[in-house]
């Protein structure tokens, strides 16, 4: 596994920050704050100079995360013939914005990730699922299909996105309130703030000797309901969750923790929790839920896979990161385990990961820890 975000440069550093409740929120650095109502974001602080920006950052993080994942899996860096699936919302849209403003040159080959992956890793098979904020879990579903169908023994799944001025501005204008921080499940939540980062995992067919194993993907459920451009559909989310459980061969009672999509928007949080309450109805004890966007911001295309990596680390460590900023939980979250601080000594076996995108793009994965 590999990852880069505003709170750390690798999965262990990110997980440590999450468990410590340390977020990456800071004053907006990428562009002129005076143009927007919201003035904060969860950015990676790697620009060459304050107030400046440079092209190709999403691609650079992507390559870094893939290198980390290959090293962790004990693989060399030659991915010739290995499918690489990169979930993204914006690709290199920020590079286009800089070119349009006359601040940086732009080669057409820099608009997508294939050329860079070919130069860095010898990649000959690349795909770019662009399923909004569910993109990297859509990539995971495609990876499991490729393996199940015998099309590949090994697949690299990744996600990456950098902050873009056009997307930040669009979100800033459509939200009714101005968020100062992303506060999932809190009654005083005001909306979503964007984050940056990349994440990658190596997925292999089970069985045989493959080197280090972080965990197992049991199944991924998908749908796209087209219910509304931005408003999520509770019944459709419920169907995606049940589909994931069925593919994973688990029941609702087997889920110990849910990694929420948890964007901190009024509709997403209420709809997601209501759907979970319906799916988990009848359980004597409802599972824990947590939302790492409270500390990473919304990392868009890679957000689902970043939650999946966090889930596997949580299983291995027996720790559940808190939901930062949660002071007054919404009514729909009643009965669920809400980690106000980091939960330690947690017995976690099976974790569900939610990722939902605009237009009704829903993806849910179920994972378990590495064999002991």
Automatic annotation (TrEMBL):
UniProt keyword Protein biosynthesis, yes or no: no
Superkingdom per UniProt: Bacteria
Key words of the record: Transferase
Family classification: Belongs to the thiolase-like superfamily. Beta-ketoacyl-ACP synthases family.
One Pfam match: ketoacyl-synt
InterPro entries recorded: Beta-ketoacyl_synthase, Ketoacyl_synth_C, Ketoacyl_synth_N, PKS_Beta-ketoAc_synthase_dom, Thiolase-like
Protein's name according to its UniProt entry: Beta-ketoacyl-[acyl-carrier-protein] synthase family protein
Domain Ketosynthase family 3 (KS3), chain residue ranges per copy: 1-369
């Amino acid at each position: 596994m590999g990852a880069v975000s505003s709170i750390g440069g690798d999965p262990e550093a990110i997980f440590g920050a999450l468990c410590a409740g340390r977020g990456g929120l800071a004053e907006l650095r990428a562009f002129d704050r005076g143009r927007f109502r919201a003035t904060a974001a969860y950015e990676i602080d790697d620009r060459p100079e304050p107030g400046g920006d440079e092209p190709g950052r999403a691609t650079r993080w992507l390559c870094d995360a893939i290198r980390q994942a290959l090293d962790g899996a004990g693989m060399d860096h030659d991915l010739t013939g290995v499918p690489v699936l990169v979930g993204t919302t914006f690709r290199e849209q920020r590079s286009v914005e800089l070119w349009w403003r006359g601040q940086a040159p732009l080669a057409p080959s820099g608009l997508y990730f294939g050329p860079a992956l070919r130069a860095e890793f010898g990649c000959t098979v690349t795909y770019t699922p662009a399923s909004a904020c569910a993109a990297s879990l859509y990539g995971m579903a495609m990876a499991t299909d490729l393996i199940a169908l015998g099309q590949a023994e090994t697949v690299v799944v990744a996600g990456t996105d950098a902050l873009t001025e056009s997307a930040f501005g669009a979100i800033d204008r459509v939200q009714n309130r101005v968020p100062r921080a992303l506060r999932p499940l809190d009654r005083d939540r005001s909306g979503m703030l964007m984050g940056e980062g990349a994440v990658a995992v190596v997925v292999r067919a089970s069985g045989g000797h493959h080197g280090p194993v972080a965990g197992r993907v049991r199944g991924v459920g998908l749908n796209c309901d087209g219910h509304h451009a931005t408003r999520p559909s509770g019944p459709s989310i419920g169907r995606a969750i049940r589909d994931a459980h069925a593919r994973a061969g688990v029941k609702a009672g087997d889920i110990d923790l849910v990694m929420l999509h948890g964007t901190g928007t009024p509709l997403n949080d209420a709809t997601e929790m209501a759907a979970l309450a319906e799916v988990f109805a009848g359980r004597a004890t409802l599972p824990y839920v947590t939302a790492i966007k409270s500390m990473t911001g919304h990392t868009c295309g890679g957000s689902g896979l970043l939650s999946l990596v966090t889930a596997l680390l949580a299983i291995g460590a027996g720790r559940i990161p808190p939901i930062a900023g949660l002071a007054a939980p919404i009514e729909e979250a009643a009965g669920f385990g809400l980690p106000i601080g980091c939960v330690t000594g947690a017995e976690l076996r099976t974790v569900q990961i939610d990722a939902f995108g605009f237009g009704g793009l829903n993806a849910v994965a179920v994972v378990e820890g590495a064999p002991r």
